[in-house]
Amino acid sequence: MIEAIENFIPTLAAFTHIVIVLTLFGLITIDIREKIIRTFIKHKNLLVMILSIAAISGSLFYSEIVGLIPCRLCWYQRIAIFPLSVLSIIAFVTKDKKPDRYILPLAAIGAFISAYHYVTQFFVVSTSCIVGEANCADKLFMHYGYITIPLMAFTICISIILIYAISRMSKK
Asked: Which pTM was predicted?
């Protein structure tokens, strides 16, 4: 069961990458552009809540069930991403019209740290980022030849940023 979940999470990330590309392509296609924008405006709080809860669930799964020890950059990503779930639940429940004011800064910080961490895993040989046994340059696993834990965190943060950016594209 644990192995199935370990394979499902990166598959979900790959699926999200496909959805992001299709969404961006859809935005340049006049026929479906307005449908995408209306959908994101209507469901932005729900979508962000689902993504942020998925991020926390995945993070806790890998550390608490699989037993992976988070490195320093993983902890920084968690500091940015964990509050997103609480804030997005509050935004969804209260039907907040402008939750991006307080969610976007955290998503942007999480995206920046995750991108830096991903680049560190592939291009930096330095092991100066070590917490206990965890080293930021280690790729604890890789699926489909490119998906690592930092890339999954980056995917969540960029998806949240994209949802709010698209929901602001209305012709009001």
From this structure: 0.85
